[in-house]
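Lab notebook, design round three. We kept the backbone fixed and only want residue identities now. Task for the bench partner: fill in a sequence for the structure below.
Input structure tokens:
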């Protein structure tokens, strides 16, 4: 209980929780919007320079994000995105989008294009084919992506500190200074928050599945 008392006395704790949740959810949604079309295109289509795009999507995994963000910092200053939560969202895409594209690339390759081709030949639109065929089959991959990306975003300290400039406060930016203390109860309380936040996002995702009726396909 002493850990919680110390933690709750931190005046920015609720702001950090709110910012972490908002930033994490936005990063998750942007990952899905980018990775699903990209994964489908790479899996189903052959085009000139395809190897280059696959390499391009892999580079953020091979190159340290810190090295990339130092180069982007000046650009974000010019665009007015530093010290703002949207700038933090954009920089959190660097370590997360490559993994998400890989996940959906593998998922679409496993499912194959034949189901959609059959639906379209029977008069279905591409959008309805995606909603009724691919989306239900992609739910396990989307569930994994939601959890993975949110955890990646939640744990970003250096990227958030550089682009946020101290004005964007997240759980990670509060957590690391507390590591210098010897109070294990405080660290345990922080760790519990780190565990609870992704679970709330998963619960929200499962509720969305129920609302969209995708649970009938699973």
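Proposed sequence:
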């Amino acid at each position: 209980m002493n850990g919680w008392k110390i933690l709750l006395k931190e005046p920015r704790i609720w702001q950090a929780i709110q910012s972490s949740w908002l930033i994490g959810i936005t990063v998750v949604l942007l990952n899905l919007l980018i990775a699903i079309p990209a994964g489908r295109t790479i899996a189903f289509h052959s085009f000139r320079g395809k190897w280059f795009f696959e390499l391009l999507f892999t580079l953020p995994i091979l190159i340290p994000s810190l090295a990339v963000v130092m180069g982007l910092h000046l650009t974000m200053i010019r665009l007015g995105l530093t010290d703002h939560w949207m700038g933090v969202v954009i920089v959190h895409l660097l370590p997360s989008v490559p993994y998400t594209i890989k996940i959906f690339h593998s998922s679409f390759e496993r499912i194959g294009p034949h189901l959609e081709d059959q639906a379209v030949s029977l008069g279905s639109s591409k959008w309805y084919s995606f909603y009724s065929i691919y989306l239900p089959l992609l739910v396990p991959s989307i569930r994994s992506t939601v959890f993975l990306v949110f955890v990646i975003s939640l744990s970003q300290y250096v990227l958030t500190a550089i682009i946020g400039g101290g004005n964007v406060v997240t759980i990670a930016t509060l957590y690391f200074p507390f590591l210098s203390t010897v109070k294990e109860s405080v660290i345990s309380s922080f760790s519990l928050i780190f565990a609870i936040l992704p679970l709330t996002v998963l619960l929200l995702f499962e509720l969305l599945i129920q609302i969209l009726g995708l649970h009938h396909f699973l």
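Keep this in mind before ordering anything: Residues 62 and 76 are 22 Å apart (CA to CA).
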